């Protein structure tokens, strides 16, 4: 049953309970990166909020606040108002901020990233560049 919390249908566990054994099997070395991809409003944030409950997981969310406040201007809002004019600039900035996020020092054994730098490049930057 899928409701407010993601539930593993086979075991009746929440996503945090299902994910915990993966974290516990980690044996040192670098962190394990896991990327959550999906359309807008597909439940990525809900899943990430569940995974925040695990102490040894670091959540790296999209830096939407940066996109909405670039030197006092809302670049994301401009892109939605006139995507032909602002789309390429916006997605280039998205790519830059996502690269910064992906290079951030991670202390936890597992890092869960909301979208990857590859989705920013291949799905969003190339498309507006062609228009």
Automatic annotation (TrEMBL):
Pfam families: dNK. The keyword Transferase applies. InterPro entries: Deoxyribonucleoside_kinase, DNK_dom, P-loop_NTPase. It comes from the Eukaryota. One of its GO terms (molecular function) is deoxynucleoside kinase activity. The keyword Chaperone does not apply. Residues 34-127 form the Deoxynucleoside kinase domain. GO terms for cellular component: mitochondrion. Keywords: Kinase, Transferase. This is Thymidine kinase 2, mitochondrial. It comes from Geodia barretti (Barrett's horny sponge). The lineage of its organism: Eukaryota, Metazoa, Porifera, Demospongiae, Heteroscleromorpha.
